[in-house]
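Table S7 (text form). Paired inputs.
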Amino acid sequence: MKEIIFLGAGWAVPTKERGSTSILIKTNKNILLDCGGNVAQKLVKTDTPLTEIHQIYLTHAHTDHIDGLPGLLHASWLSGRENDINIVGSPKTIGKTRNIIKSYEFDFPFNINYKEIEGKGSINDVQYTEVEHKDQSLAYRHKDITYSGDTKPCDNLQKLAMNTELLIHEATFPSTQQKKAIETRHSTVKDAVKTAKQTKANKLALIHHKPEVKINQEIKEAKKTIDIDIDITAPRDLDKIQLN
């Protein structure tokens, strides 16, 4: 049984139910997808030791996806961390992240292993591909779990996510704001549902939607329009999905 915990399922502006994006995949070496918001506290709420986060995969360097990283590293250190941690992302993302961490002048007793990746490939059982947002944005897939990061619909994501069990997809805008989504290189709810159908995903989790998106209504309308019959959810912070 594999457990996915949505530490942060929201957009850049937090609400009472959702903070900035961060997703935990619980394995023998816990994986963190993005690191937005108060990740350290959310991990504590899930009874996940801060010292047992081994790998962090960043989709891009916008603040709502990385601003929890300094606090997580600091809290992990104060919790007794001695084991190294791996941080993976594009050259632009790693460059910005490295500078942010360096500015705090931490004196950690463990190593931060930065790994720059580009294009398409795999690292530590995680596949990746570039997607169409900004600043060398990436999507990731760990076995049967695919995470879009921020992106407009694109072929690279479709190929990465084909036949995935769980597709975690951003849905920043309501379906009525297609033009705005295209301009900002984001997705609407309908875009995400279409991608789920095209990739034959078994489950779809919609995250990163703006507070004004009436997400349950949007899901209902999109399922009718696109004619898809799969489990579609809009997780709140600390919600969990379990896969066999």
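Next pair, protein 2 of 2.
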Amino acid sequence: MKYMLLIYGDELALSETEREACYVESTQLAQEIESNGQYLAANPLHPTSTATSVRVRDGKRFVTDGPFAETREQLGGYFLVDAKDLDEAIGIAARITMARKGTVEIRPVIEIAGLPTDRAHSKEASSTDLREKY
């Protein structure tokens, strides 16, 4: 079953050196779980200052700069994994660096028939070196 591991943390809590170390550890974890056939995708997100929220009400589109929720912990990245059950997903989540400094929320993914093919495994669509992207 596919699980989305949503990584939340205080984006101001890490120094640039700590952030780089987190990317290195995350890349190592991604490579380890890829060798087990569990890795599907992972990426850090840019800071919430780059976020845009969109709401549609009564046919009108409302676009707002920044995240919708005003909390200390913000969504900072994700892993998409293939695990046999929730316990296995919890084991992977516990190995994510930010689990020691923030929170990792685990959500089972609903697979809908008819959606385009998942490109997460293609070399063009993703890279397991998270530092290359940012």
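Residues 2-133 form a domain with the Alpha-Beta Plaits fold (CATH 3.30.70.1060).
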